[in-house]
Design goal:
Helices cover 47% and strands 17% of the residues. It has 361 residues and is of the alpha/beta class. The protein folds into three domains: 3-164, NAD(P)-binding Rossmann-like Domain (Rossmann fold), CATH 3.40.50; 172-278, 6-phosphogluconate dehydrogenase C-terminal fold (Orthogonal Bundle), CATH 1.10.3660.10; 293-360, VC0802-like (2-Layer Sandwich), CATH 3.30.2130.10. It has a seven-stranded mixed beta sheet with strand order 2-1-3-4-5-6-7, sandwiched between helices. A four-stranded antiparallel beta sheet has the order 9-10-8-11, covered by helices on one side. Helix 3 crosses helix 4 (91-99) and helix 10 runs antiparallel to helix 11. Belongs to the prephenate/arogenate dehydrogenase family. GO terms for molecular function: NAD+ binding; prephenate dehydrogenase (NAD+) activity; prephenate dehydrogenase (NADP+) activity. Its EC number is 1.3.1.12.
């Protein structure tokens, strides 16, 4: 691949352009908002000048509702040798293209499984896709050269290619992305009119659950409008679980010992089902989840503190597998949770104490 055209210079499009540009591909940028394309160009993502002729690959990075029309326009004017989109749903846009009667041998639907709460070109980074799955949904009609160009794009962005059927992809993202986003928003909505004294008690748990609720509602309306059926089916299942959980909690209020026992059993069931599902979430590098030991270190909110902890862990010969910071409400302090191999946790704790760190039990 020597040349590419990125149509849509939001977070995903600009990030892909930055990655390609950094690896020697000449990237042309286009957007319905010329100012956004100019912003992406100013960030080093390419040029907002149109290409002189067909490029090797056209990357359509627009909302799902506009994918088919944008692709159809690019194909009809012969903008590229190959075309792909990066929308978060795959079956709908393909059906729309088929209904338009276009030759789809030059097209492949894709979806990089990466993003941020922030949108737009200013949020873009060249490393956004590194190590992340990038789904490809070829069909029997997909030309081999088109598939190879898509794989080259994934490699240049240092992502991990995953081949799936389009409908299976849409059901999967409904489960692992679209439905959780709505549930997160529903939990966060409980905080809108909550008492300030209650909100001040927020800890890491509520921050984890509500983090993705900060995303742009307009973007998510586009996404959910393109995949409503699978998401609705999953929410119906969650609703049934909620009804059973409410019934179990009400039973715990009963004066009848048998009902209280039934309620406790119902709560235990849902919690254990949660345990069973959570352990299936892939761990580091996509491997099976690993049970890490946590070493919790008290830290002040001052420059260089995190660097010191990591340096001290390195001097102790310990690799930190993961890290989480829990901030103290209203204070310039917090707790850094270092996740490490259980075999080295005692050595790390001892080394950090020797270097003056206060550990939390």
């Amino acid at each position: 691949m020597r040349t590419a055209l990125v149509i849509g210079t939001g977070l995903i499009g600009t990030s892909a352009a930055l990655a390609l540009q950094s690896r020697g591909v000449t990237v042309h940028l286009a957007d319905h908002d010329p100012e956004q394309a100019r912003t992406a160009a100013a960030l080093g993502a390419g040029t907002d000048e149109p290409p002189a002729g067909p490029v090797d690959l056209a990357i359509v990075a627009v909302p799902p509702a506009h994918v088919a029309a944008t692709l159809a326009d690019a194909m009809r004017r012969g903008a590229a040798r190959a075309y792909l989109d990066v929308a978060s749903v795959k079956a709908g846009p393909r059906r729309e293209l088929e209904e338009l009667g276009l030759d789809l041998s030059a097209y492949i639907g894709t979806h990089p499984m990466s993003g941020k709460e922030r949108s737009g070109p200013l949020a873009a980074t060249a490393d956004l896709f590194e190590g992340r799955p990038w789904v490809l949904t070829p069909t029997r009609a997909t030309d081999t050269e088109v598939l190879n160009l898509a794989l080259e794009l994934v490699a240049l962005c240092r992502a991990v290619p995953v081949v799936m059927d389009a409908d299976a992809h849409d059901r999967a993202v409904a489960l692992v992305s679209h439905m959780p986003h709505l549930v997160s928003s529903m939990v966060a909505a409980r905080l809108e009119n909550a008492e300030e004294t209650a909100v001040r008690l927020c800890g890491q748990g509520i921050r984890d659950v509500t983090r993705i609720a900060a995303s742009d509602p307009r973007m998510w309306i586009d996404i959910l409008s393109a995949n409503p059926g699978p998401v609705a089916d999953l929410l119906a299942e969650v609703s049934a679980d909620l009804d059973e959980t409410v019934t179990a909690l009400r039973a715990l209020q009963s004066s009848d010992e048998a009902k209280r026992q039934d309620g406790a059993a119902g709560i235990e069931t849902v919690l254990r089902r949660g345990n069973a599902g959570q352990v299936r979430v892939p761990g580091k590098h996509g491997s099976a989840p690993t049970a890490y030991e946590t070493v919790a270190v008290l830290i002040s909110d001052q420059p260089g503190q995190l660097a010191r902890i990591f340096a001290d862990a390195g001097m102790a010969g310990v690799n930190i597998e993961d890290v989480r910071i829990e901030h103290a409400t209203g204070q310039q302090a917090g707790v850094v949770q270092l996740f490490v191999d259980p075999k080295v946790a005692p050595a790390l704790a001892g080394a950090l104490r020797d270097r003056g760190w206060a550990l939390r039990q």
